[in-house]
Amino acid sequence: MANSGIASDERLADTDGLQAVTGGGQSLRPRTNEEAIRQARRDAKEARKRYITEDLYPVDMVDVVQNANLRLMVASIDDPNFVGYYERGTGTIYVNALSAPPRLRTTMAHEFGHWYDLEVKGRPATSCKREVRREFTSPGDAYADEFMLCFLMPEGLIRKLRKFGATIGRLSDDFGVSEESVMNRLRSLGLLS
Length: 193
Ligand SMILES: [Zn+2]
Known about the structure:
mainly alpha, binds zinc ion, single chain
């Protein structure tokens, strides 16, 4: 079973590159992961202004998804590799109800990032149908993951909390994300080696 997930990811990664070259006439080459990450940082700031109505934490992703007029489907899927996906056409974000709450939030924000990249920014399709735990090798997923970190943990606030001595465990509670996500955010801001 694990093999089928890996195979499907490889196929998606291939499609990702192909569509980036041919899709929309926007670019003659696929963007690199580094370019995708820079775009995600800018876009997440912009998206926070547009779709977050109250500056409260943890970010209420259900509210955000509704503000963006997207559909949210929370289904119990008995497959630990399935966490969620964004479906074009219907504008639906699917998440696995069997995920722990911090993962539900980060999955929704990751899929919301795919939507922002594809539909708001109109960039070539990089969305994946199926998300599994793995290294983010495609630019589309590098984008969605960085978008998620920046959307849920804004730079100014996390810097301030860290300066006042907030531990990783405390930040994990405050932002409603896993300690791993907090550490990734701190690393990307140069606050953790
Ligand atoms: Zn993804």
